[in-house]
Specification:
Blueprint: H1 18-27, H2 42-46, H3 50-64, H4 74-86
Length: 87
């Protein structure tokens, strides 16, 4: 009996290193493998867990309710975040 083993790796391309290839070699020693690359839709990822879906729904509600904080620059946003984290 032949069992077809399938392993799915989900990672950011910034995480791709030779250790990934080594792990594939270890998992499938001396075998022919097929590697598919599929770009993941950001929305699909953000809605992939109940906690993420809840945060997205809350963020959308805040926008609809006008509860939005905006900044002119990234630096301003980072400074505001630092002040918030110090509290």
């Amino acid at each position: 009996m032949f069992i077809n083993m399938v392993t799915t790796y989900k990672l950011d391309t910034r995480e791709l290193e030779t250790t990934f290839i080594d792990s594939v070699r270890t998992t499938y020693p001396n075998q022919m493998v097929e590697i598919q690359v599929k770009e993941q839709d950001a929305t699909e990822y953000l809605l992939s867990t109940p906690a993420n879906r809840e945060r997205m729904a809350m963020a959308l509600k805040n926008i609809e309710d006008g509860n939005v904080i905006s900044f002119e620059t990234l630096e301003e946003a980072m400074q505001a975040t630092e002040r918030t984290n110090k509290k």
